[in-house]
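Lecture 7, part 2: worked example. A protein chain together with adenosine-5'-triphosphate.
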Amino acid sequence: MSKQTDQFKKVISHAKEYGFVFPSSEIYDGLSAVYDYAQNGVALKNNIREYWWKSMVQLNDNIVGIDAAIFMHPTTWKASGHVDAFNDPLIDNKVSKKRYRADVLVEDYVAKIESKIEKEILKAAKRFGESFDPEKFKSTNARVLDYQKKIDSIITRLSKSLENEDLVDVKKLIEELEISCPESGSRDWTEVKQFNLMFGTKLGASADSAMDLFLRPETAQGIFVNFLNVQKTGRMKLPFGIAQTGKAFRNEIVARQFIFRMREFEQMEMQFFIPPGTQKEWYDLWKKTRLKWHLALGLGQENYRFHDHEKLAHYADAATDIEFRFPFGFKELEGIHSRTDFDLSSHEKFTGKKLQYFDPERNENYIPYVVETSIGLDRMFLAVFSKALTEETLKDGSTRTVLKLPPALAPIKVAVFPLVKKDGLPELASKIVEDLKLDLATTYDEKDAVGRRYRRQDALGTPYCITIDHQTLEDQTITIRDRDTMEQERISIDNIKNLIMNKVSITYLLKLI
Ligand code: ATP
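Predicted complex, written out as structure tokens:
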């Protein structure tokens, strides 16, 4: 098994074993690409959402939040282009009968060439030591240049044929690259076909009057249709943003990467309305702002990169992905799109209602342009969780599994243990829990030896453990242990909150961005 697959399997089983993510309706053998968040997972997810929400709505005077319904008038999806263009090119392997996204097959092929480049760079870095300049190496090494040339020509060809809806050429490309089915190894493929990703449903009780609806495939449209409502009732002046988090649904063709690609997932989107002509400057600014938000989590700068789109969606004049190094390689975590006035213009056309803004400075009415930031909460969960999961070999040769979550995101902030289950220690520990609980997610554990209890909390990502012992009864001090350094310190009970509150609160992250 490759190191990558092995690490990914560990992530999935840790998520299940420690109560973070369960397959949906598991007792019925689950439902493909649908997952439930468990007791610890929901806390981690809520904390990520809170970090995002506060960074958008609380820190920016000109961004407000809404919570639009999942059901929307069906014409919304005609206007947004989803009815006609929200398709993925699918291809089936005739031997394994497995279905794939044709573009993803090609992108995975490209990712393999990219990892060859990375290997060359690592090898060279070892050889040249301190004086190694990776950028220079990439621009001069013949083998790397060859790989890069190949990547560029594949991507250009794929983008062009997708743009022209030339599905015959997409299939030809797959054949020319000799891409085989990862499952069966066969190269016997069907034709490439378009597949609409929206889930349909019905509104209304009687069969003849029922209205065909879609489950929203993105949250953004709930913001566009409310643009004027918010602008007027909030007396908002351009530039301003509307933020929203909520469920979205896509009938994904390939959904085999745990919570990376789900059929029901949650998005955190912010649409920023701006005067036409200023989109480039806002697009650049939001790229920077969003990257900073990610970097504040401390998961390592080397795990992020921008991927600017060559093939632009029908609504965009510029687009980039923030990609993250997941256990299966660099993949999209967040999209930043300059959406022009496409959506508002289109809703104007379909509704016949003006969706314009009077700009007092320019003294004119116009349809605002939009730059959006759009991130999947579940993907963000996977990014944080997979990077945090660490196996450490300790000085004594033993190993420990520790979930090094950013403390502000950890589901439990502090665990309280009585050293033994007698002499009044459990009672005192419970008293401390009652007090800490008012401000912090706190847990109590008295089972097994303290060492085992530490390990359990390490695996859950709890940043601090507090032990109450006999000395506590005498001088009101406890030992506090740090998850990452495993160092213990003796402090007064009164100082617990002072010491940890700041580090485990979302405020800590907000100060960094
Ligand atoms: P992909 O290319 O991976 O299908 P996308 O470009 O279609 O993603 P967007 O429409 O830009 O994605 O959606 C914005 C964000 O929503 C993505 O960056 C991703 O984090 C998240 N997202 C999209 N589809 C899914 C899904 N099926 N499961 C989980 N998260 C998703």
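Residues 218, 250, 252, 261-262, 265, 267, 332-335, 374-376, 378-379 surround adenosine-5'-triphosphate (CB under 6 Å). The chain has a mean pLDDT of 94. Keep this in mind for problem set question 3.
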